[in-house]
Design a protein that fits this description.
Layout lengths: L2 H11 L5 H20 L4 E3 L3 E8 L2 E4 L6 E4 L2 E8 L1 H7 L8
Antiparallel strand pairs: 1-2, 2-5, 3-4
Helix pairs in contact: 1-2
């Protein structure tokens, strides 16, 4: 599902919401989530999952072609852990022919 698919689904589900308003709501929510993660905060949506920021320390890697040593700097990366409700919904056995 893309952002535009999400906007379309929101506008379709709530008929009183104009498409432009649905787009603004999705943009605002995603921007707020991104800003929170940039600040290092954890985001938890019950039944869906949680977003956290993990720290990867600096390390030494190798160039696969030359075998040359490459210093890889430390970085912060986003991480998503699905909630129990989402895990159970996704794990439903597939129906015949699906």
């Amino acid at each position: 599902m893309t952002r535009s698919d999400l906007v379309d689904a929101l506008a379709e589900r709530f008929s009183q919401l104009a498409h432009r308003d649905a787009e603004q709501a999705v943009r605002t929510m995603l921007d707020a989530m991104g800003e929170a993660m940039v600040k290092g905060h954890r985001i938890e949506i019950r039944g869906f999952g949680s977003f956290t920021v993990n720290h990867r320390p600096a390390r030494v890697g190798r160039n696969p072609r030359s075998g040359e040593r490459v210093d890889i700097p430390e970085k912060r990366v986003p991480h998503f852990k699905p909630g129990k409700g989402l895990r159970m919904a996704v794990d439903v056995p597939a129906k015949d022919g699906a």
